[in-house]
Amino acid sequence: MIRVLFNKKGGVGKSSLTVNLAAIAASFGHKTLIIDLDTQCNSSAYLNALQNSEQDTIADLFAQSITFHIHRRPAKDFCQATAHENLFIIPGSTRLTEMESELHSRHKIYKLREALESLKKDYDYIFIDTAPALNFYSLSALIAADRCLIPIDCDDFARQGLYSLQQKIAEIREDHNDALAIEGIIANQFLGTANLPKQIIEELKAEGFNVLPEYISQSVKMRESHQAKQPLIHLAPKHKLTQSLVTIFQHLDTAE
Ligand SMILES: Nc1ncnc2c1ncn2[C@@H]1O[C@H](COP(=O)(O)OP(=O)(O)OP(=O)(O)O)[C@@H](O)[C@H]1O
Ligand SMILES: [Mg+2]
Predict the structure, then answer these.
(1) Measuring from each residue's beta carbon to the nearest atom of ligand 1, which residues come in under 6 Å?
(2) pLDDT tens-digit profile of 118-177?
(3) Residue 157: CA atoms inside 13 Å, Cβ hemisphere, count?
């Protein structure tokens, strides 16, 4: 199952959730791959996967489709092991920016889907982290994925962006990928003591959005986990934040 975490809004938890859900999947024994499609490379940095990755980033994989290669390397050659058992990553790269217009003008929008088709049989779970923009790469991801998870930070701007996102996903489903479904909205940085987040979630549910039943609270543990370059399941397996993420993963797992 290929999942993309996407929201045009920045800082809502796409990278944090990609890495932590993937790390939980891996810790439960599932072979899991992360694809980092963001030039910020936050999920790659989180997993300490930026060293020694000169030739093995997602940009190198895309570059093969626009430059001549006598021997094209298969997508599996770009998957790197991480420090955690069962967890692999194709790291991000800042070079994605300079390649974007050429990839776009040469109609390479299905290249990621082709690459993932070849990897699908090797992994139980594939999670794709995206940039906070509907650019060539996030569109490629939405075309390649089976499910889209949408993290929100429970503020009013987040809600406004959801309507256009829902419409865009319907368009992609119709034009490119009839398998694509919005699996759910993940309420992140939820503050149970304030009224607004609860109100926003209730309104979203009333409008028919599937907000996953477990909300992820705001906790400094998340930042500590980034700093330590250790996913929460390894840094703080018993922490409330970790347990919420496990519950979300289990929700996805049973939805397989
Ligand atoms: N539940 C949480 N509690 C506390 N801090 C959080 C939580 N989730 C995310 N953060 C923090 O919020 C910031 C943004 O998170 P993250 O980078 O995962 O979002 P993003 O959607 O990937 O951002 P971007 O759009 O820039 O790629 C980070 O500093 C992260 O540590
Ligand atoms: Mg990010």
Answers:
(1) 10-16, 38, 40, 42, 132, 188-189, 216, 218-219, 222-223, 226
(2) 999 999 999 999 999 999 999 999 999 999 999 999 887 878 889 899 999 999 999 999
(3) 7
Encoded tokens for 216 = 């992820």
Query: Is residue 138 left, alpha or beta, with left meaning phi > 0 and alpha meaning psi from -120 to 50?
Result: alpha
Both tokens assigned to 195: 């009224």
Concatenated DSSP letters for 172-229?
A: HHHHT-TT-EEEEEEE-SB-TTSHHHHHHHHHHHHTT--B-SPPPBP-HHHHHHHHHT
Closest atom of ligand 1 to 10 CA is 25
- Nearest CA, atom 23, ligand 1: 11
Domains of the chain: 2-254 (3.40.50.300)
Report how far ligand 1's centroid is from the alpha carbon of 16 (Å): 6
pTM over cut 0.85:
yes
**What pLDDT was estimated at residue 104?**
95
